[in-house]
Amino acid sequence: MTITTAPSPKPHGHFLDAPRLPRGITRFWLIRHALVNPTDRQFVYGSQDVVICPDDVIRSRPTYEAIAERLPQDAAWYASPLSRTHQTAQAIFDAGYGQRSIEIDPRLSEQSMGDWHGLPHGDLPARLTRIAHRFWSIAAAERPPQGESMLDVCARVAHALDDLADRHPGSDTVIVSHGGAIRAALAHALDIHPDTALRFSIQNLALSIIERIDGHWRVVGVNELPLPRAPL
């Protein structure tokens, strides 16, 4: 008896049917920075340069190790100019990923709250001209004096993503950034209004993954919290 094997169907649709993400895709791994110092969290800090909590870095060592294991080794690395993103990247490097060079891109920074930087959170509502977003400090269209709206953030982050996708086609790029900027990236990938994107929860050290395929963006994962391996 002769057994013939039908030819494998030609891949189409770029479906994700395997447990591992395929190589050769323009892919971005977006990581929100680590938790900042408790004193700074009492105030609106936006794009101010505050540092991460050193005690939390120690407590979260297993999470950093899980992130280091999850990320592709041959990725290009980018971060915002704010030191909390650099410190987070360094903690990932120290947790087993290995040292890498990081390119700084101001377009990946957090929303500037302008004259409202440093306000206690309880004082912010009296300054607003629009009803605050339920899941963000201000509405997407609210622009603080000398600051920027989330609409502004989405515009600059979209420009950065398209530019970096052109610069690194078919390869992986890790971006250590901020909650607002990552929401802006999701707004760009999904072509949705910033007010809608602000409904995403983006936790500290959470990983979100987006891809650009043939000029079209898609979202692979949002707010993934890499878990440490269970002890043997």
Automatic annotation (TrEMBL):
GO CC annotations, alphabetized: cytoplasm
Stretches of the chain forming a coiled coil according to its record: none
GO molecular function terms attached to this record: phosphatase activity
InterPro entries, alphabetized: His_Pase_superF_clade-1, His_PPase_superfam, PGM_Phosphatase
Species, as recorded: Tanticharoenia sakaeratensis NBRC 103193
Record protein name field: DNA translocase ftsK
UniProt xrefs under PANTHER family: BROAD-SPECIFICITY PHOSPHATASE YOR283W-RELATED, HISTIDINE PHOSPHATASE FAMILY PROTEIN-RELATED
